[in-house]
Amino acid sequence: MIFMHVLTDFVLQGIMADMKQKSWWNKYYPEYMGEHGRCKYDYLAALTMHSFFWASAIMFPLFMRDYVAAGIPELLWIFNGICHAYIDNQKANKQSINLVDDQFFHIIQIVFTFVVANMTTR
């Protein structure tokens, strides 16, 4: 799960690393970022896509090992996607946490997911 986290957050992210930041949109599309701009919330689309891709990736080993009981995968996936988006938004857009904090919170998510998945083993 940690391998999938590193792979997804640092290797496979590609352009989403930039697009999930409001500052990137302000830099490249300032004319569309105003109060009524058509790109005003586009960074949230990229942030959401990245976050749910990440949630899928870290849970992939659990699905492969059939650790997760019925009903739990969807809840964990939604939980992880929302938490990941919130954490990344705090770092990328609000700049209220640093990379160390960001990674620490993601590792906590992974540990929590692993524990819950193992508590619900079939």
Quaternary organisation of the protein chains: single chain
Using the alpha-carbon principal axes, give the shape. elongated
Helix run count: 6
Share of helix, binned: over 70%
Structure in words:
Helices cover about 70% and strands about 0% of the residues. With about 120 residues, it is an all-alpha fold. The longest helix is centred in the middle third of the chain and has 24 residues, at about 40-65. The model has no long low-confidence stretch (mean pLDDT about 90).
Task: Give a quick rundown of the structure.
By secondary structure, the chain is an all-alpha fold.
Secondary-structure topology with pairs:
Elements: H1 2-11, H2 16-19, H3 22-28, H4 42-65, H5 72-92, H6 99-119
Notable traits:
mainly alpha
